[in-house]
Design goal:
- The protein has 399 residues and is an alpha/beta fold.
- It contains 17 helices and ten strands.
- The strands form two sheets. It has a seven-stranded parallel sheet. Strands 2-1-3 form a three-stranded antiparallel sheet.
- Helix 16 links the parallel strand 9 and strand 10.
- Helix 1 runs antiparallel to helix 3.
- The chain binds zinc ion.
């Protein structure tokens, strides 16, 4: 049977998409490699062991063996073997032998899957960027994911421009024009100034923060399945810690272990971030559970990035770590500011994954010290289902 048939059978028998079938087979191949395994070990990978096993077995990609315990001796024989090397009795004579069925994947399976995964990868990453993808893959053990709004949009949340636009309803026309102009330029903090100076209901930081918290709580799709977002794919990279500028709880909702949303004030020193087992989530711009921690105005923002702590933590960490920016767009002034203020001058190689980059845009990023990886996403909407799917392929191939 060919790999195509196997993929198709897994897809039909286990009712999953073909992409998921390839991912499942890859996981099996990476788990067992060239080693013997028992059928029940598949249970750690897929619940429906019987169907999965019979599909694999009928594919011809599995060799069958018998492990025979004969007194003190243990030997593994190919399935066709009839007699024990030690006592010369029939292997299946269970009065003298303890028998275990063992299996091994044929080498062809991993070879063919590697080729298939590379084809799939090439379908979402332009040739120009494959080299940088492999650089990223080589440094994956030192990567710290840095998440922007784009990773939260699939969970129902708004990006900054839309969140802000929803707040400008009570502005007079002239003020509204300035407000829109600033949003369109990516000057989100400037737009917030317009709100504060020209509305009654959103004239204080507190009002604005409350509004944002309510919006996030109302729109956030709690418990959304993993297929529809990339949060779990990012968690699966198993970094030492995570940084996000998002206020929402998506990372802590999907991760295990420490699920406290840390803000800068709650971090004692760089070592706390690097406490590997904890894999803490640092909400650099605050978290909605403590609205006070939320960075929303120019003053908040300047205070944060002038804070020596942020520089000393990052300096301490970035000697050995590399950032991977996901969910930011580089033409956004907001991101450029963050990057220029705190990350540009740190050592190390920092990567950014973006969709549909033009080579000229990529060159600008490289000049700014970033290593861009462009993913091909069909359609115009920036962080659509297609974006999630393409990013999923990239992130899974990093493992
Ligand atoms: Zn024997």
């Amino acid at each position: 049977m060919s790999l195509d048939n196997l993929i198709n059978n897994v897809h039909l028998n286990l009712s999953m998409s073909e992409e998921e079938a390839v991912a499942l087979l890859t996981k099996i191949s990476n788990t067992f490699k060239n080693n013997f395994f028992r059928k029940n070990q598949l249970k750690n990978i897929q619940d429906d062991v019987e169907i999965l096993f019979s599909t694999l077995k009928s594919s011809g990609y599995i060799d069958e063996y018998i492990q025979c315990d004969c007194g003190e001796e243990t030997e593994i024989y190919p399935l066709k073997t009839t007699h024990c090397d030690y006592c010369n009795q029939l292997l299946k004579n269970t009065f003298v032998h303890e028998i275990t069925d063992l299996f091994k994947l044929k080498n062809e399976l991993s070879q063919e899957l590697n080729l298939r995964n590379e084809e799939i990868l090439k379908s979402v990453i332009d040739d120009h960027f494959l080299g940088i993808f492999y650089e990223l893959k080589d440094t994956i053990d030192t990567i710290i994911p840095f998440l922007g709004a784009g990773t939260s949009l699939p969970l129902g949340l708004d990006n900054w421009p839309n969140l802000l636009r929803g707040m400008g309803g009570s502005l007079k026309q002239q003020d509204r024009d300035l407000f829109d102009k600033r949003i369109n330029k990516g000057d989100y903090l400037g737009a917030i100034d317009v709100l504060k100076n020209n509305t009654l209901n959103l004239s204080t930081d507190e009002d604005i923060k409350k509004h944002i918290v309510r919006q996030i709580e109302a729109k956030y799709k709690s418990g959304l399945a993993e297929n529809y977002h990339n949060i779990k794919d990012i968690i699966n990279l198993e970094p030492a810690f995570f940084i996000t500028t998002n206020y929402d709880s998506s990372l802590i909702d999907y991760k295990e272990g420490d699920t406290y949303p840390y803000t800068l004030d709650q971090i004692e020193d760089a070592h706390e971030l690097l406490n590997k087992g904890k894999q803490i989530v640092l909400h650099l711009h605050g978290h909605l559970r403590s609205p006070r921690s939320m960075i929303i105005t120019k003053e908040d923002y300047e205070k944060l990035y002038k804070d020596d702590r942020i520089k000393s933590y990052l300096n301490a960490i970035m000697g050995t770590k590399n950032l991977l920016f996901i969910g930011f767009s580089f033409d956004d002034e907001y991101f450029k500011d963050i990057y220029d203020n705190s990350f540009k001058n740190l050592g190390g190689q920092h990567f950014i994954i973006q969709n549909n980059l033009h080579p000229d845009e990529a060159r600008d990023m490289i000049k700014a010290g970033l290593r861009p990886i462009s993913i091909k996403v069909e359609g115009t909407s920036d962080f659509s289902d297609n974006y999630v799917k393409a990013l999923k392929i990239v992130l899974k191939n990093l493992l």
